[in-house]
């Protein structure tokens, strides 16, 4: 049988980006090496500050083209003080252009504990934090961040500013479908918690109606409840397990709630994210209806210039991003779970002196490379 081939573009980026992406790349290579029926073509391209230095632009045409043709994109973080707010060309502009060019309207951020041994790092009490397993699905290119606005002081006597929040039925339907497919990719399927402010906002009343109807008609098997954003933001810290499952919400609320939930596991270095241009197919890639959905997968942390080049960054957020890439863009749930299990096994283990295997952000002394190598070593036994 001929192997099914997938193109994965790697954008190492700036700061600690190349260091953590190198470890996630080894993980993907281990998955491909162990498989008799898939082939991953990994190709690296310049993007971000390093591309500004080399090509004079953050997003070179060749990088954009490769991303458009890819089945998925694995990215390190971009930016840093060298290309700060006063620079003419900024790395972040390249990211906005890339997101727009790929039409990435869904941002997905899980917050959970890779291992219970990390519970002590949480700002929440262990009894409250234990078992938290939340995936935030945030609408990314609509709502108040993209509506018409007016700054104050445009005319000398003007002392008002305004922003407009607009959502259409089709924008709400498509993000609802993403949340539903993500809920279905888990075994058993996850409940969906839709978050809005329907007691005040017209956009939220439309949101609630469209989410309810779309799920009733297209995904009647999924459980749905609704929360107001103010009460949901309290629940996330007071009893977060009540929101276990998929949180489905619009752009502004999602920005806030995804940051709030991501502090629960205790280190920025641990968590992955995905930005998608379509609902992932939950069918295995072998099935006739499987279609790869391009997406960008990256850790939630930034380029961490303070520790760049020291070889101490935690690669786990990027390695778990690679697992999300396999699951959501390539339809490869089994190796995705193997990666997640390998991370758990490593974090559950101790060295000969009885110390947990940890990078510096979690109080340990493992280097980025050693942490990556330990995860790959365990992964090979699970594939
Ligand atoms: P952004 O670039 O999105 O603005 P930021 O500057 O707010 O991000 P980061 O660059 O993520 O934040 O860094 C915040 C802090 O967390 C820094 O002290 C950094 O060293 C630390 N940090 C971030 N990612 C990691 C990681 N993978 N491993 C260890 N420490 C990390
Ligand atoms: Mg930063």
UniProtKB/TrEMBL annotation:
An example GO CC term for this entry is:
cytosol
Keyword Iron on entry: no
- Enzyme class, one word? oxidoreductase
* Name by which UniProt lists this protein: 3-isopropylmalate dehydrogenase
Q: Which NCBIfam families match?
A: leuB
Pathway assigned to this chain's UniProt record? Amino-acid biosynthesis; L-leucine biosynthesis; L-leucine from 3-methyl-2-oxobutanoate: step 3/4
E.C. no: 1.1.1.85
Q: Does the keyword Transcription regulation apply?
A: no
| Subunit-level organization | Homodimer.
Domain Isopropylmalate dehydrogenase-like: residue ranges? 7-375
